[in-house]
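[step 3/7] fold_predict: job queued, chain A
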Amino acid sequence: MSEHLTTALTLAASGVPVLPLRQGKQPFGNCPQCAKSACGDRPHMKAAGPCQCPRPCHAWAAATTDPAVLTSPAWRAAWRQAVAVAYHPAGAGLTVVDLDTADAVAWARRTLPATRTVSTTRGEHWIYRGTMSSANRVRPDVDIKSLMSYARWLGHGTGTTAPLPDAVRALVVKAPVRPASHTITMPAPAGGGECRHRTPTYLERGIAMAEQRITEARSAVHTTVYRTFLAVLSAHGGCGCLTDAHIARLFTAAQAKGESPRHCTDAWTNARTRLGL
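[step 4/7] structure written:
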């Protein structure tokens, strides 16, 4: 039995839902049968819905405490490839404040109530008792991981787990330093004519092709996502056609392949920067 599986079973026995992480510390991507919600899952809900896939599909929603699932053939194969164990904080009734730098840790020590802390490679995880919405970059180098999210298991840490404070909940409500909205706001085309991309067929075909390209990626998913975002922005980023709904479709396709929300945001930002948008 692998070390990661042994850890996972111990956590599951204590009521912590766990899942394996592949190279890059990302969840295993959905299998072809589950891609693009073909299996009838509900990735926007708190569980994977009616999908009974035997593989560790659906990222955070695959997290489980069932030892029979964790030790099944499909999951054992995943554990053999795994580089780390992750858990679903909300499934254990927890919220993780992920502090990625020393400056972020210093801010937390000045601002947040003391609680259980776990050292990470770059900073600390502050663990609170209670659940809330997850959000990335609620302030510089600070992420919130709870509902619909996962966190790496890095040990039990030190200190006593405190109740989730209003100060943490307010970070998501206020979102003081979130990155710029994904909605693309660009000047109208020269001459004030109607943008040709606004024709429903043209734009829909482009977004559908981009989704398909991401979904069909069998390797180099990070690169495929970035290049696809770059292609979409090259075609549609300069005229104001793209909406949050279009971009959400692209992000959903990428996350179905195991990309994290942070990686999606970074890829989108990098593509915009390269194109000067």
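[step 5/7] annotate
The chain has nine helices and ten strands.
Residues 208 and 249 are 9 Å apart (CA to CA).
exit 0
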